[in-house]
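Q: Structure for this?
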Amino acid sequence: MALTREQMAQRVARELEDGFYVNLGIGIPTLVANYIPDGIDVMLQSENGLLGMGRYPTEAEVDPDMINAGKETVTARPGAAIFSSAESFAMIRGGHVDLTVLGAFEVDQQGNIASWMIPGKLIKGMGGAMDLVAGAENIICTMTHASKHGESKLLEKCSLPLTGAGCINRVLTDLAYLEIKDGAFILKERAPGVSVEEIVEKTAGKLIVPDHVPEMTFDA
Amino acid sequence: MALTREQMAQRVARELEDGFYVNLGIGIPTLVANYIPDGIDVMLQSENGLLGMGRYPTEAEVDPDMINAGKETVTARPGAAIFSSAESFAMIRGGHVDLTVLGAFEVDQQGNIASWMIPGKLIKGMGGAMDLVAGAENIICTMTHASKHGESKLLEKCSLPLTGAGCINRVLTDLAYLEIKDGAFILKERAPGVSVEEIVEKTAGKLIVPDHVPEMTFDA
Amino acid sequence: MAGFDKRVYSYEEAMDGIESGMTVIAGGFGLCGIPENLISEIKRRAVKDLTIYSNNCGVDGFGLGLLLEGRQISRIFASYVGENALFEQQMLNDEIEVVLTPQGTLAEKMRAGGAGIPAFYTATGYGTPIGEGKEVREFNGRHYILEESVVGDFAIVKGWKADRYGNVVYRDTAQNFNPMAATAGKITVVEVEEIVEPGELRPDQIHTPGIYVDRIIQGTFEKRIEKRTVREG
Amino acid sequence: MAGFDKRVYSYEEAMDGIESGMTVIAGGFGLCGIPENLISEIKRRAVKDLTIYSNNCGVDGFGLGLLLEGRQISRIFASYVGENALFEQQMLNDEIEVVLTPQGTLAEKMRAGGAGIPAFYTATGYGTPIGEGKEVREFNGRHYILEESVVGDFAIVKGWKADRYGNVVYRDTAQNFNPMAATAGKITVVEVEEIVEPGELRPDQIHTPGIYVDRIIQGTFEKRIEKRTVREG
């Protein structure tokens, strides 16, 4: 069975380490915050200028001056820091964020990522995504493995305009967890009940399949 | 009679305008602060990171965390701002300072200035002077017109290593007040009792002498 | 001694001198910390053919969206413009030129403009459409593109508190692009919620030193919320 | 959950990992806001062949002057080094290489290094010995030179207050080069006068967000004054 959005978030959360500064993109990446393992503390960076993002506010706490990069009202945890967007992207561009999680339309075996623009469709803009992928050394892409029509999104070469070149090293899809290295995807784990064959079939880029590909496990 | 240091500071102070942000270099420029005309308020910028420098502290006010660019203990006036040296030079380099007054070894008719280095002598460093002359549109150089040996310091071309190229437009010496324009010094005022002939004689660079060169006046 | 008293008392005075064809740099992120009354005054004046630098372009009927209604913007540098139906329409009709600019690059272009740095290298956008036509250079084995900075005819800024000298502090995430915008205007106008006496703001806690600021006005603000997300109390 | 507790309790621990041949970026201006105890610890460790980025080099017997005594510095990037007889002697003997760097350029090199900007253009130094051998480029009819940024193996910083997450505030003009230095170390060590609880510092008033900081130590400081100038009380 393909992973649910929640399971994808859960699986990504296992990559968190105690003391990580993490930037979570919109969508599934945002859900990761709900699955931070016990005993691990991470500090969430929001690129508008907030380090130490807290929970959503209660109705009484709502403050128009306190939003996150998704423009949602949020709170700051004790010990947070708030700063300008120039400072925020100084820390992003300068490689100070330990882990970035973001969605994508396509990823290829060279670590290229396309996530912001589909020619012919309305272009909304890249926001901070290009800075994030250029600045982070440690990025996890979350995406479905293939489109609704069964077309692979893990490609030999991205077909859409890039967000960043050669910057992605880990991908979590609804079917598998993969690493990208030396021009190939390496299959590290598969979703429960998903066969290696299905993953091979739905991966258009070069895929290296080790002898043993463990199945992910999730608490019931 | 050549101007005293105090008279030079007094004369420079007449160039101040109400609402000017001013950076005063070490030496005679520093004295300018003592002669700010009545009815005029200026804000002194100190390049280590202080806008709104106040007077020297009283013995009781001395604070090692409050110094100026000359490393002297100072105070901040009400409404001062204190910031990093990067921010300080952002405002200097970005042309936000209205007037810079600094000393020099030599100035030439192209507006070049040499103020930081005499080859063969110990080099102490340029500090913020190169940023100041590159960033300000409005600079007054204060200097003696000629060396003790009578050698002019207002040259056709600076002989010493430059602090900045083509950036000086006004010079106040102990003998005269001059502007620099289109490759020439223009004699605007002379010190009380100093003849045009003496100034001509002590100016090695191209000098334009108008028909009438008023004498500076000072209160007794 | 009026020299450093930068207060003005009407929005008309605050935006005095703005003309069609000018470049305006605006603070704000989404609808948070936007100079809403200064924008309304630009709308009222009906100046046209503006070039705007702003992370977003407001929403229909609020913020910079107001200037879209008046067809006052001919070009905008922004990182994200997806909140606005009118915008979409003008873009599809080629009534407005959109120069999509990565958020960090946009912030740095303003900061560099104010700081007298005409251009800088960044890895952001290398190998993407954003890097096309821009100089590429390698430093320490990595590729970077050259980005130029910007200075606007006007910068419009929203602060929290200011003194009459123009020293400004911002509140929480309403800071965002405002401090950089404030440095990058030939004329910088800041509207704030409260004007305090000089000396009330701690000098080493000022976000925008007054040297960058030409006019200060105290206003009242709607502070519209774009996405109200709440949890159970 | 020790993840963000960056406190260390000895200066030995604070400077753990520093080795001969490393590059160290130091905050401070003159003797104001210098990380005096971290410098003393480097002296104690007797590591050699250091490259230092610092606006000044202390005075005889205090601040970075201590490292001169130990002949620990082989190269220094500084804007002004004229306060120090030992320095003069080592320079004349070619025991130390001095790369004089304009003060604003030095500050920006650190800031850019921390911000992932490998190089930037500045008018500062164009047409002077500082510009020799550097790329010159014209923007809008003016000449600029290309300056590269710096990242150090260590950054040593003096703050006023910090929380255990490494959020730091600086006091008055002791801020100077410290915030930029803090961003530009692979390992950034901050010594402060007081460590407070997370939440005690107002989030929007923090000068150095904790993400830049690896270690925090509370110390006591001599805070020597270089030029005591006073007026009658």
